[in-house]
Amino acid sequence: MTKLKKETSQNFASGNIELYPNCSEMVFRLSGDFEEIRTQMHNILDWTIGEYTGKYGGGDKEELHPNIKKSSDEIREKIKNAKTLEDFEQIVIEFTCNYETFFKKEDDNNLLVATCNNYDWTNVKKEEVYDLGDDELGGYYGISGYEYYSKKQSIDGYEIYKKDYLEDNENEKDIPIFIFPEKGFKVVDTNSKFIIKGDKIFQINNNGLELVPQIKDEKILNNLKILMNLDSSTSKK
Q1: Which of 47, 59, 116, 201 could in theory staple to 2 by disulfide, Cβ–Cβ 3.0 to 4.6 A?
Q2: Whole-model pTM?
């Protein structure tokens, strides 16, 4: 645990926030009225920080890196200022071990949390969830909306990204899906992790979700497809 904590801290502090998933994801549910869920959100952040400082988890006591301190303060303010469960959905804790932590409203009294099971989370009043499955309705990737894309090419200042498929996903691996951001939009993550929520696409930026603006001009979009020889391809729009 100490080694994982140090690697996560070093990656985040250096600006490299790719945390190399290792199948240690978990999902749990926060329940109650809004203020109770807000309290548990603070508890989640407290535990995350406590793992770095040695308060929780049994690791070495260490001084909190300024970058993580700054980010945790920003998240704390977002939790404090939230008015709805949808506001919590816009928060991402980037520096939890192995996996970023995401939140998704289940209904008016329940918030799902997709995170890492390397933490005990014993200060959090929660219900662990095992029956959602790793599909569009639940599981870590279903809750987070997390998908990997690779930069396909750049044409006249437009950067085009193609969805990566796991080799064992036989139903989808041959279907090309592309993202066409507006010209000049900066993709922060060099590994191109995008968050898909319905018809909207986000990227993780500053411990939150930033909307990725999609090309709306059909002429520009069609010209890019022609240049890519992708007239019949599928795109996220």
Answers
A1: 59
A2: 0.81
